[in-house]
């Protein structure tokens, strides 16, 4: 079985800029490439799991989400690295303006549909895996799937940290950024 790092995209791997509408706005945090390299060197599959309700809200087409992932892949390829898979949820159960995306789906975080798909595809051992992101929905996703969890202080992380109220909200680690979270979780 494989182990995986399920990573949130915006606010964790790349800078949080609201709804990305231009590929030029995609920028890694200073230690994101180092984090991906560290995880690869330690035998983890890198799986991006991201809610992209901008599709449902008609801010961007699904093709733009795929183009953004191609750009991220090309940026990492320059460093000899790759993401093993990108999974995204284009739905929103209440705020979708495009009818086909007005769905209470199984893929929208914190539901586990994206992780479930990756587990089937890559034969992943969830007990040996973890989820890293800048929102409590990422922490909840990891807990719902049975992985270790990290909340990073980039993106929305500092605001989200203030919302921690219950054990369900509490991540296994709180880290400065994606790289620190990866190092801390690998040690657990």
- Helical/strand content category: alpha/beta
- Rough outline: globular
How is the CATH topology named?
Answer: Rossmann fold
Query: Total helix count?
Result: 6
CATH superfamily: HAD superfamily/HAD-like
The total domain count is 1
User: What is the C-level CATH assignment?
Assistant: Alpha Beta
Instruction: Give the N-to-C terminal Cα separation.
Output: 19 Å
* Helicity range: 25-40%
Q: Indicate the mean pLDDT.
A: 97
Largest sheet: spatial strand order: 3-2-1-4-5-6
Content of β-strand: 15-25%
Query: What's the number of extended β-strand segments?
Result: 6
CA-based gyration radius? 15 Å
Ranges with pLDDT <50 over ≥5 residues?
none
Structure notes:
By secondary structure, this protein is α/β, with parallel strands linked by helices. It has a single domain, classed as Rossmann fold (3-Layer(aba) Sandwich), CATH 3.40.50.1000. Helices cover 32% and strands 16% of the residues. It has six helices and six strands, in the order E-H-E-H-E-H-E-H-E-H-E-H. The chain has helices spanning 32-41, 62-77, 113-122, 136-145, 157-161, 178-187; strands spanning 3-7, 44-51, 85-89, 130-133, 148-152, 173-175. A six-stranded parallel beta sheet has the order 3-2-1-4-5-6, with helices on both faces. Helix 2 links the parallel strand 2 (44-51) and strand 3 (85-89). The longest helix is centred in the middle third of the chain and has 16 residues, at 62-77. The radius of gyration is 15 Å and the shape is globular. The chain starts with a strand and ends with a helix. The model has no long low-confidence stretch (mean pLDDT 97).
């Amino acid at each position: 079985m494989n182990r995986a790092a399920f990573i949130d995209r915006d606010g964790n791997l790349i800078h949080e800029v609201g709804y990305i509408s231009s590929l030029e706005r995609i920028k890694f945090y200073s230690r994101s490439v180092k984090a991906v390299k560290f995880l690869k060197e330690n035998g983890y599959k890198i799986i991006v799991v991201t809610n992209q309700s901008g599709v449902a809200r008609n801010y961007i087409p699904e093709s733009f989400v795929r183009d953004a992932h191609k750009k991220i892949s090309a940026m990492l390829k320059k460093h000899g690295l790759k993401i093993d898979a990108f999974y995204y949820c284009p739905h929103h159960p209440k705020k979708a303006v495009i009818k086909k995306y007005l769905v209470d789906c199984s893929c929208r975080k914190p539901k586990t549909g994206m992780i479930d798909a990756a587990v089937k595809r890559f034969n992943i051992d969830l007990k040996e895996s973890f989820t890293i992101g800048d929102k409590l929905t990422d922490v909840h996703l990891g807990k719902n799937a049975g992985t270790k969890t990290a909340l990073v202080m980039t993106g929305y992380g500092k605001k989200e940290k203030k919302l921690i109220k219950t054990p369900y909200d509490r991540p296994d680690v709180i880290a400065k950024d994606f790289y620190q979270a990866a190092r801390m979780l690998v040690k657990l």
